[in-house]
């Protein structure tokens, strides 16, 4: 199903492209490898895991410059995860490990994810497992069984080179797993790497998966970076709602009401 544009862009100002900006001094943002700043405890900023694309084989040099400033502007502490390349099971394990590490440090409701392409697959797996409170996946490979593009690009040994067989591909396909946390999928209508029909089927199969079809192809966010801004805003709205709910539950007035039977 298509996600209402108003949900993603509550203010008209978000419709215009805006500069990525630069990390604020002392902002507590992360370094690569999944380790970064931030302080645990009440009032801590939400933590954002970020996963680059690259067919599970390469790093995307455009990913961090496009996302870092926008993640910071939305109020997140970014953690860029350097996952193993050429080893899909190890990449999934690293993503889950980093999500669990941040949840233990900052709390179960303070961890979110954003990923692009192959990295979007990792983000979708985390939201499916409810290891993050919500995630955004830009053009994720949601079905590793039916994805034929890499065979033409890299050859018939592509999946073997990633250390997976047919059973692994089925097990690690987000579309073939439960989806337990909210996930926003952003999909270019003219994408010739990840077919739009794949993620239309993904969104149609699960109530918690929302699909935003946009103009452009697989790297549409490079020429339309406001899409990333809107994605970060969507995540920030969920983080804010969870923060307010937690504050209300922990407030003395709420506790007194509970003790008095209200």
Structural account:
A 6-stranded parallel β-sheet has the order 2-1-3-4-5-6, sandwiched between helices. The N terminus is likely disordered. It is an alpha/beta fold and 262 residues long. It has a domain of 160 residues: Alpha/Beta hydrolase fold, catalytic domain (Rossmann fold).
Question: Topology of this protein?
Answer:
Elements: H1 5-8, E1 47-51, H2 63-73, E2 77-80, H3 88-106, E3 111-116, H4 118-128, E4 135-138, H5 149-154, H6 158-161, H7 166-171, E5 183-188, H8 196-205, E6 209-214, H9 220-223, H10 226-250, H11 252-259
Helix pairs in contact: 3-4
Form type: globular
* SSE arrangement, N to C: HEHEHEHEHHHEHEHHH
Helix content: 40-55%
The CATH superfamily name of one domain is Alpha/Beta hydrolase fold, catalytic domain
Rounded to the nearest angstrom, the radius of gyration is 18 Å
Remind me, CATH topology of one domain?
Rossmann fold
Work out the helix count: 11
| Rounded average pLDDT | 85
- Structural category is alpha/beta
Largest sheet: 6 strands, parallel
- Sequence of strands across the biggest β-sheet: 2-1-3-4-5-6
Using the coordinates above, name the CATH class of one domain. Alpha Beta
Query: What is the β-strand count?
Result: 6
CATH architecture of one domain: 3-Layer(aba) Sandwich
Distance between the termini: 39 Å
Contiguous runs where pLDDT drops below 50 for at least 5 residues: 1-36
Percent of sequence in beta strands: 5-15%
